[in-house]
Amino acid sequence: MSAAAPSPAAGAAPDAAPDAAPDAARGREAVASAYQRFEPRAYLRNNYAPPRGDLSSPDGVGPWKLRCLAQTFATGEVSGRTLIDIGSGPTIYQLLSACTHFEDITMTDFLEVNRQELGLWLREEPGALDWSMYSQRVCIMEGKGESWREKERQLRARVKRVLHIDVHQPQPLGAGNLAPLPADALVSAFCLEAVSPDLPSFQRALDHITTLLRPGGHLLLIGALEESWYLAGEARLVVVPVCKEEVMEALVRSGYEVRDLRTYIMPACLQTGVDDVKGIFFAWAQKKEGV
Question: pLDDT for 231-252, tens place per residue?
Fold first, then answer.
């Protein structure tokens, strides 16, 4: 989860015309302001507790996301030394399969409250969220005989830092950040569309994070399809609706070869009134050499 001025990366579309820039800036400021009311625990209850957090059915949205990640990492093609998780939010599930393949992981978020939640889990402090059901499910999917405690221990050991990020800045991690750059891989789940007021802002945010990735490196991107709002406690947050074709086009314009693009249609039983999401996408993209 990462909120709130743009300059095109290689392969990016030109910025909006000058007279449109103030409106775009106001839109990003409004997004950043709305996120100050974001409540991590409410967001987690809405999306990672039952019914959406029910991992017992292979047809559920949770197992689908975990399966996409596990299968992609199982190819052995997405590996290296360094990985950055863009807009981690208060969640860690998106890195459970990644931590076997990368020894230096950076987690990031725009909001201090989310970085605090991550810190509680990483330090195993009282009150930390319990992700053991997700860890157990990933271990079963991967089929390596690893225990969920070993999985979580490895992830905690390999997350080296939790940093502030703003995907709407040309240098998303800021000048003089502590993350080793460029990274060998990026992961991002439910971030770019959730913090972009419009499609051009989504494109520029993708351009910006792409500068953090080495040529030939891999991006694994998960996001909402055709969603325009979601709830996180008292916060009602605006999302830019994107379809599969728009995700594909954005990746290509940012200089990627799209290796895989899957979609999940949200069933009626999981449409619980906390958002208007129609489905989920998973994209595996590789940054082209020379970009």
Answer: 999 999 999 999 999 999 999 9
Helix axes 21-35, 199-210, angle to 10 degrees: 80
The answer to whether residue 12 scores a pLDDT higher than 90 is no
**What is the rounded distance in angstroms from the CA atom of residue 40 to the CA atom of residue 117?**
8
Helix (H) or strand (E) holding 73: helix 61-74
Predicted confidence band of residue 19 (pLDDT cuts 50, 70, 90) = very low
Integer Cα distance of 34 and 22 in angstroms: 18
Copy the structure tokens of residue 144.
């390596």
User: What are the residues whose beta carbons fall under 8 Å from the beta carbon of 206, sequence distance 6 or more?
Assistant: 192, 250, 251, 254
Answer whether 85's CB lies under 8 Å from 179's CB. no
Write the burial class of residue 124 (CB in 10 Å: 0-12 exposed, 13-18 middle, 19+ buried): exposed
If you search the block for the tokens 């052995």, which residue do you land on?
Answer: 76
Which spans in 159-243 are helix H? Answer: 199-210
* Cα–Cα distance measured from residue 80 to residue 237, given in angstroms and rounded to the nearest whole number: 35
Give me the chain's average pLDDT, please.
Answer: 92
* pTM to 2 decimal places: 0.91
pLDDT digits (tens, 9 = 90+) for 133-191: 999 999 999 999 999 999 999 999 999 999 999 999 999 999 888 899 999 999 999 99
Burial of 82 (0-12, 13-18, 19+ CB in 10 A): buried
SS3 of residue 256 by DSSP: strand
